[in-house]
Amino acid sequence: MPNNIDIEIKKIFFHVFPDLTESNFDWKKKQNDYQDWDSFSQLNLITLIETKFHISISDDELVNIQSAEDALNLVKRSK
Questions:
Q1: What burial letters (b/e) apply to 10-27, b meaning 16+ CB within 10 Å?
Q2: H helices within 1-79, ranges in order?
Q3: What is the per-residue pLDDT across 32-72, written as a single tens digit (0 to 9) for each?
Q4: For residues 53 and 49, what is the distance between their CA atoms, to the nearest angstrom?
Q5: Domain holding 70: CATH number?
Q6: What distance, in Å, lies between the first and last C-alpha atoms of the chain?
């Protein structure tokens, strides 16, 4: 069963990528597999994650977020 962090990360991805649905969401889907994952989307993701979880994401960490799973693992490590 997913925990609250999992649920919130998914909500953020659904918000940033409106074409994403439960049926096509994949934790391992990479940035290159998203048609609309550009630098603006990356900034939105980071800002929403930082705000929601009250964390600060460094530039080094930012460039390593290339999937929902990467974002999830980063938040879990930061908690």
A1: bebbeebbeebeeeeeee
A2: 4-16, 39-53, 59-63, 68-78
A3: 999 999 999 999 999 999 999 999 999 999 999 999 999 99
A4: 6
A5: 1.10.1200.10
A6: 19
